[in-house]
Amino acid sequence: MLVQPRRSPTRMSGRPAQIVVRVSLVALLAGSCQGRQACPPSQSRTEMTKAPLLDAGRVLGPIDVQRQRAAFREEQDALLRSELSPLARVDYVHLTAGEHRLSTAVGAALRVPADALSGPLGQVSFVAAPPSAVRLVADPPVKLDGVLQSQAVLRKGQVISLGLLRLLCTGTDADPALAVYDLGSPARREYRGLRYYPDDDRFRVAARLQRYAQPKAVHLPASRGDDKDLQAVGTLQFRLPPSQDESMEAYLEQPGSTRLFLIFRDGTSGKKDGSYGAGRFLYAQLGSDDTVWLDFNQAWNPLCAYSAYFHCPLPPRSNWLKSQIPVGEKVYSEH
After folding, report:
1. I want to staple 302 with a disulfide (CB 3.0 to 4.6 A). Which of 78, 124, 227, 312 is the partner?
2. HSE-up of residue 180 (Cα within 13 Å, Cβ side)
3. Domains and CATH numbers, the chain
4. ω into residue 131 within 30 of 0, thus cis?
5. Predicted confidence (pLDDT) per residue in 164-223, tens digit
């Protein structure tokens, strides 16, 4: 759907050239793509992250803590097995002004894999005229949110189904985009579960937020070029085993929220059989007295750990922790 040629990320063998499932760790850390046409815009929280269950900052009993972690991991596993699994995302394309037609032809601006289709493609076009909504034109009709449609004005979050393909309408009215999912992608077919360190309750620690005088806008480097905009509210102070004092900046995804979004690296990041090299995420609920429980057993990978076509913030140097944190989610696979 891009009018200009794009630079392709690392390809996965055994699939058509446009299909990419995993991103090189070196490229991820360096921000490999250059230029807007190669990089999706900052995504909504539901695109960028998974939403674990949270406590309310109170002290939980051991059974409640275990149940909470188990429920969170069930949510993660369900997402990885779903139709819109991050393992199934194989492209993300901006819709510049004009008509963009789906094609299986090599070199087409909007190419989809022929082996994901259940029959002839027909004519499927997306007409973009930012900031107006994108229009779908299809002959024969295609399923839009499960209903056959030949023409429709698309809304963010709607899904078009074509055989094993799912096209998710995303982006903004000013910069619309399609995220392309292939239910038959090797990464999704081969998924057998996520990998975790053994739980260790020593890494569920109390922290206190030292607030900034005023929340401030920050622009964090991200996995695919464009900075990710977040709101920094202060610095968390805490101690990790065996006796290491640590701190990291805490963010909000929505102004006024009491849920902190944390992005960090630690001594296990990028190590063999360790955690994801680009860092991990953690949510924590802020108490009324600015105290918070950090359960690093619920640390999880950003979605760019599973597909090159997600746009995830990277931890700033202030959030590179000195400690090793051998709990939470491990790297999914070696890149």
Report:
1. 312
2. 24
3. 43-82+194-319 (no CATH), 86-189 (2.60.200.20)
4. yes
5. 999 999 988 899 999 999 999 999 999 999 999 999 999 999 999 999 999 999 999 888
